[in-house]
Amino acid sequence: MTEMKTVFLVGYMGCGKTTLGVALARVMRRRFIDLDEEVEREQGRTVKEIFTEQGEDAFRALEKEALRRVATVDGAIVACGGGTPCVDGAMELMNGVGVTVWLDANAKRIAARLCLPEEKVKRPQVAALHDDEVPALVAQGLAERTPYYSQAVLRFDSTFLESADQIEASARSLAALLEAYSFERAK
Question: Where residue 162 falls among pLDDT bands split at 50, 70, 90?
Fold first, then answer.
């Protein structure tokens, strides 16, 4: 196996960064880090509480600090928050120390995932919306964030993560893509 840098998974909320990241870390035998969980652990509060109590700007500052810390962990699989790449300097940092992968799922699938009750309760931007409002939020968010996500070194279709078999197959496909990329870079 070729030596590989830290892998940063980026993409819109609900695209599968955590789901696929956990499976990818298992397949590749690497440490998994969820950036939101790092912020929560450090702050002793949930992302939703930070957003509510301090606002998005305060959360983004905390997120940027957490990103700087995890960027020093060699070989990890890092699931970034959906807005992480939009923070000033974040994509440059991630591309400088590791391999960035844009998990790109279709907007309809993302909206369906975000409407699941277990997802709505933990996502501040979706929690107060009616299900029929979520597709517009996703479309707007993708339009705003695509210029940042497109700075990723690799792009991977994460539309099919709805079953254990799909997650496993996607993790193996992404691991193979990363191995091929790492091998080519080593030449």
Answer: very high
Alpha-carbon gap, residue 165 to 163, rounded angstroms: 5
Q: What pairs with residue 104 in β-bridges?
A: 157
3-state secondary structure of 156: strand
Instruction: Look at residue 187 in the predicted model and tell me its pLDDT.
Output: 65
Both tokens of 56, joined, read: 């998005």
CATH hierarchy code of domain 6-165: 3.40.50.300
Distance from the Cα of residue 57 to its chain's centroid: 19
Contact indicator for 143, 50 with CB cutoff of 8 Å? no
pLDDT of amino acid 185: 77
**Is residue 22 pLDDT above 60, yes or no?**
yes
Q: Would you state the structure tokens that stand for residue 149, as one six-digit string?
A: 């996500």
Residues paired with 100 in a beta bridge: 8
Alpha helices in the chain (DSSP H): 17-28, 35-43, 47-54, 56-70, 90-97, 107-114, 117-120, 124-127, 134-149, 164-186
Whole-model pTM: value is 0.93
Tokens of 20: 């696929």
Nearest to 155 by CA among 85, 88, 87: 85
